[in-house]
Amino acid sequence: MLAFGRFFILAFVICSAAYVVLWLSLRARRRRLILEEWKANPDEMSLHAYLDAETTRWDRARHRTLIVLVYILPMCAVTAIIYLTNFH
């Protein structure tokens, strides 16, 4: 049981590092796309206001998706594999 706990602590640290890297790279990519959209039609609002509005809207949706994909799915898969291997 101690090995199981150590594994999940290490997995959480690795998942957290993956989350941060994915978050920063996806945010930079999305910001680049938002800048291209604004350059195509700069009359709507100022660049700073447009970037704030679009990144805030996008960050909320991406945050939920990344948590599910980076933390929940891998932990559930590993837990199921460990359970099926050892206790079934």
Structure description:
It comes from Sagittula stellata (strain ATCC 700073 / DSM 11524 / E-37). The chain crosses the membrane at residues 6-26, 66-85. This is Cation/multidrug efflux pump. Keywords: Membrane, Transmembrane, Transmembrane helix. This protein has 88 residues and is mainly α. It has two domains: 18-56; 59-87. 90% of the residues lie in helices and 0% in strands. The protein contains two helices and no strands. It has helices at residues 2-40, 47-86. Helix 1 runs antiparallel to helix 2. It is rod-shaped, with a radius of gyration of 19 Å. The two termini are 16 Å apart. The model has no long low-confidence stretch (mean pLDDT 89).
Largest sheet: none
Number of strands: 0
Estimate nothing, just give the exact number of structural domains: 2
Report the uncertain regions: none
- State the helix count: 2
Structure class: mainly alpha
Question: Helices and strands, in N-to-C order?
Answer: HH
Beta-strand percent range: under 5%
Q: What fraction, in percent, of the residue positions are helical? A: over 70%
Rounded mean pLDDT is 89
First-residue to last-residue Cα separation: 16 Å
Rg value: 19 Å
Shape: rod-shaped
